[in-house]
Amino acid sequence: MQKGNIRVQTENIFPIIKKFLYSEHDIFLRELISNAVDATQKLKTLSSIGEAKGELGDLSVTVAIDKDAKTLTISDKGVGMTAEEVDKYINQVAFSGAEEFLNKYKGQNENNIIGHFGLGFYSSFMVSDKVEILTKSFKEAPAVRWDCDGSPEYQLEEAAKEGRGTDIILHINEESQEFLEADRIKTVLKRFCRFLPVPIFFEGEQINNPVPAWTRKPSELTTEDYQSFYKELYPFNEPPLFWIHLNVDYPFNLTGILYFPKIKQSYEIQKDKIQLYSNQVFVTDEVKDIVPEFLMLLQGVIDSPDIPLNVSRSYLQGDPNVKKINNHITKKVADKLEEIFKTDRAEFESKWESLGLFVKYGMMTDDKFLEKAEKFHIMQDARESKFYTLEEYKTAAATLQKNKDGKLVILYATDPVQQDAYIKAATDKGYLVVKLETIVDAAFINQMEMKWSDVQFTRVDADITDNLIDKQEDSSTVLSKEQEERLKKLFEQQPSGLHLTVEVKGLSPETAPVLATRPEFMRRMKDMSAISGPMGSFYANMPDEVTLTVNGNHPIYQQILSVGDEQKQEKLTRNLADLALLSQGLLKGSNLTSFIERSVDLMKQ
Predict the structure, then answer these.
(1) Which of 70, 149, 319, 440 has its CA 20 to 30 A from that of 290?
(2) Spatial contact of 28 and 126, defined as CB atoms under 8 Å apart
């Protein structure tokens, strides 16, 4: 029998271990099982290169409780250890002394001692009065037993053990009797060990999935596989919207699956739903340094051996790889959203209620994401199901909704039902109103007005409709009264079948020369008349009501009014009016034919 002192430069390492590790003392089980898995994986490697002979047999890890003996045992069938290896790996703790350690790590998380210093095994003393190791190497060597009662003194002797591998036997202390309860152990195992790559058994039940979906190639997985894995992670959640499979091996190693959950207005947004693993060992669910803040609403798993961790594996340290991984995840999410938007826009729009929160949050907090997201960020019409990207909104609304500073005014509603009258008044004038009603929209609007220099947001009930778009200090034009009257007379001579109202206003010179708008009520009545039979014939037979707003500040009128030929003046103004009517779908039949013929005739002149 060998006796001796564990070789550390301090009288007693164990009070220090207990002090530093006490607040998260269930982590000892992860460390011991991780060691058991490592021993098993080492044996597989040695066998594959011919250094370990014979059949490997059952390679599972077992956790067992003996309440009568007050022991908790972790058993593996891995490489095992010889007496020399126990002396080397157990008795020589890589520790420079308590005082130096305390000075070096003063102020850091008190849980951060395990792992980096080879102290994973010694975390067992947080819950034990005594720890035994019974181990037999895969090599031709006798089995040995090591035990220690929490002082620097240990015993090491030959022992009897039938099979290869290691048993760690913890004699649980009085303060830690909870770890002799099956439910407590099962909870810890499910938290830390549910995806370890070696089968883990407790009370005859396998508690882990050794080949989780993220460890497989995307080409091997079906939609059902991804959804089943999501259900394994979050058994009570609705199915996810979609997912992104991360699989990178250069310039860093990263695998994982990120899911976009369904989020409703009434849903309480929850963060910390992404789990971080290192080679399938659970590390933490606080991944704010790895995952961009706006994607903390996502769910799923990230696994990377390249993420630098402190000694407990549960605190991320600053490192270039973390930033690279962060940027990569941002890019992958943006690319996936753009891909769905381009390939199946209808599907993308149907999921916008949930997706919008991610996209808007990202646009506010990440300028790189903002650049990409401008292509697929959409806004829904306040009264219809139609959606617009920013560029589409500009195309549809810029004619009427530019203010005197040349900024596009995006009119929005925060409560379409309550603000219906205001929305109707705005749409009657031809304005385009969108819904911005989610919990992030107030902040989103403020941020986008700073980031989009040519855009201003105005709530639809912020003022009377005529004042919503501050187009000009006043509506006066650069024309004389006589010129305005002449223009008005020219524009009043327009196609039959329409009820025209003509007004001359001083709009921005960049605004179109003529704008045609239709009262919402009459347009809807005429639309309804098409399906309401005889009762709707009254509206069906009425002419369309149209307001032609002539922009007296547009430079083209200086040219038209300087033309001496009155007939040509009439043709030019008719064409401008027809273009405005055409944009509203109001130029049809013989009127459309006349417009085409007139346009050709003007081109010849």
Answers:
(1) 440
(2) yes
Q: Please give the full DSSP string across 60-88, using - where no structure is assigned.
A: -EEEEEETTTTEEEEEE-S----HHHHHH
Tokens of 276: 């971080």
Amino acid at the residue 279: N
CA distance 155 to 133: 10
Q: Tens of pLDDT along 502-560? A: 888 887 787 778 877 665 456 546 645 654 555 455 666 677 778 788 888 888 988 88
Task: Centre a 10 Å sphere on the Cβ of residue 182 and count the other Cβ atoms it contains.
Answer: 11
Residues 6+ apart with CB under 8 A from 493: 570, 574
d(CA 239, CA 465): 43
Q: What's 284-321 look like in SS3?
A: ECCCCCCCCHHHCCCEEEEECCCCCECCCCCCECCCHH
Cβ(518)–Cβ(604) under 8 Å? no
Hey, is 160 helix, strand or coil? coil
Angle at 315 (CA atoms; ends 313, 316), nearest 5 degrees: 100
Specify whether the CB–CB gap between 171 and 17 falls below 8 A. no
The token pair at 295 is: 């994607």
Residue 510 belongs to domain with CATH number: 1.20.120.790
Taking the C-alpha atoms of residue 146 and residue 123, their distance in angstroms, rounded to an integer, is 16
Same domain, 67 and 134: yes
Residue that the structure tokens 């705005």 belong to:
426
Cα separation of the two ends of the chain = 116
Q: CA-CA distance, 157 to 3, in Å (whole number)?
A: 9
At 442, which amino acid appears?
A: A
Phi, then psi, of 188 in degrees rounded to 5: -65, -45
Strand partners, 285: none
What band does 94 get if pLDDT is binned at 50, 70 and 90?
A: very low
For residue 72, give the nearest of 202, 193, 192, 237 by alpha carbon. 202
Q: Are residues 445 and 578 in the same domain?
A: no
Query: Within 13 A of 57's CA, how many CA atoms are on the CB side?
Result: 13
- Decide: helix, strand or coil at residue 551: strand
Domain count, the chain: 4
Run of H or E including 4: strand 2-5
Which residues have C-beta within 8 Å of that of residue 52, sequence separation ≥ 6? Answer: 43, 46, 79, 138
The whole-number average pLDDT for the span 70-90 is: 91
Q: Please, what is the average pLDDT of the chain?
A: 81
In angstroms, the CA 30 to CA 312 distance is 11
CA 200/CA 208 separation, integer angstroms: 6
Task: Tell me whether residue 370 is in a domain.
Answer: no
On whether the CB atoms of residues 240 and 230 are closer than 8 A, the answer is: yes
Q: What is the pLDDT of residues 13-39, one digit of tens each?
A: 566 565 554 456 788 898 899 889 988
Given 169, 184, 205, the domain boundary residue is 205
- In sequence order, the 6+-apart residues with CB closer than 8 A to the CB of 589 are none
CB 360 within 8 A of CB 374: no
What single-letter amino acid sits at 236? F
If asked whether residues 102 and 139 sit together in one domain, one would say yes
